[in-house]
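To the wet lab folks,

You asked to see what we're planning to order before we commit. Fair enough. Below is the target structure as tokens, and below that is the sequence we designed to fit it. If anything looks off to you, flag it before the synthesis order goes out.
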């Protein structure tokens, strides 16, 4: 079969990214222009500033992706772009850009679901990994436990009833004064702390035994801080970070391993920004080894938002014959498994 080269564009949140991916699994370039410095001033992502930064950077980022891959637009097979879910203004920049390039260069266009992108990051470094497998998706906006039945085909077996895991990390980080982006800061602070210093509740929720709830855990941390403040007691941030992180990791790991067992899969993958968390990676590895499961996760740079993962997902969609029309639009609330 002829090689397929995807030029992929990602702009759903606070990273302007472009990549060239060969046959879905080989990254020829992966350029990320991060907006962290900009949003840090405000303690979180400011949607309108994100859109403006995307439009300022996107052409250079795409050119740089082509240059680094040593390719011209002529040699590209198709354009892949994230069209949802995400911030509408941010998504629109990438979608409009990808449509313009595809139209002008007469290339097919493939719209990619951002979360399918996160899952597909696993195919890049694990050439042997093929569906079906169980995947824990943990990002800033999503927490899903799924069976990846086939490329781009998901059976959702669990989801968060309230906050996403990354959102809980970000809120707790803000409450203890670690600032934005919260997840990585908690990860670092927790390395110096005692994960058993404070026992936070591991909330069980109604519904499926694979559903998650993080708002109770987050509130318990906030209560703990308020009570310490009222008593005039100092807070040990590393202990608090480590204890909160430990509670989140325990819940994520136990449900994922239980799901793999019950559904009868011996391969487990992780995806999304929180999958780069050191304690989660270590905890999941340990539990999977004990349970006789093979664990896959992407390198940290492929866990957080990037365009290489979008190129990987676009390839598998392209191979199935999926093409977007010239009416492709941003869909900020796009659900997993929806087109
Ligand atoms: O997947 P992602 O880059 O963007 C979304 O699609 O949401 O995920 C971002 C989320 C943020 O909430 C961030 O705090 C969290 O992932 N995150 C982490 C770590 N790195 C990023 N959470 C915990 N530990 C980390 N090392
Ligand atoms: Zn993401």
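Sequence we intend to order:
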């Amino acid at each position: 079969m002829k090689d397929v080269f995807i030029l992929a564009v990602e702009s759903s949140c606070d990273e302007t990214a472009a990549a060239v991916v060969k046959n879905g699994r080989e990254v020829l370039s992966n350029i990320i222009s991060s907006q962290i410095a900009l949003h840090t001033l405000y303690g979180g992502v400011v949607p309108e500033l994100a859109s403006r930064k995307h439009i300022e950077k996107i052409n250079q980022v795409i050119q740089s992706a082509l240059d680094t891959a040593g390719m011209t637009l002529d040699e590209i097979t198709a354009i892949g772009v994230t069209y949802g879910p995400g911030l509408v203004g941010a998504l629109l920049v990438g979608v409009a850009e990808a449509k313009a390039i595809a139209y002008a260069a007469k290339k097919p266009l493939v719209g990619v679901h951002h979360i399918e992108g996160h899952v597909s990051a696993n195919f890049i470094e694990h050439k042997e990994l093929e569906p079906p497998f169980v995947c824990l998706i943990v990002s800033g906006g999503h927490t899903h436990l799924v069976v990846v039945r086939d490329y781009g085909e998901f059976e959702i077996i669990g989801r968060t009833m309230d906050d996403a895991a990354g959102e809980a990390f970000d809120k707790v980080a803000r409450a203890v004064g670690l600032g934005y982006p919260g997840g990585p800061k908690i990860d670092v602070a927790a390395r110096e702390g005692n994960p058993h210093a404070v026992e936070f509740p591991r909330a069980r929720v109604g519904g499926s035994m694979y559903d998650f709830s993080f708002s109770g855990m987050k509130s318990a941390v906030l209560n703990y801080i308020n009570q310490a403040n009222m008593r005039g007691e100092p807070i040990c941030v590393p202990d608090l970070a480590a204890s909160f992180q430990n509670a989140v990791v325990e819940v994520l790991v136990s449900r994922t391993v239980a799901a793999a067992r019950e559904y009868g899969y011996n391969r487990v993958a992780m995806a999304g920004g929180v999958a780069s968390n050191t304690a989660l990676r270590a905890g999941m590895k340990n539990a999977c080894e004990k349970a006789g499961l093979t664990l896959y996760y992407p390198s940290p740079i492929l866990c957080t938002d990037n365009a290489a993962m979008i190129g990987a997902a676009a390839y598998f969609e392209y191979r199935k014959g999926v093409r977007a029309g010239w009416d492709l639009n941003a869909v900020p609330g796009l659900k997993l498994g929806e087109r």
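Structural context that might help your review: Residues 61 and 298 are 22 Å apart (CA to CA). The chain has a mean pLDDT of 96.

Thanks,
Computational group
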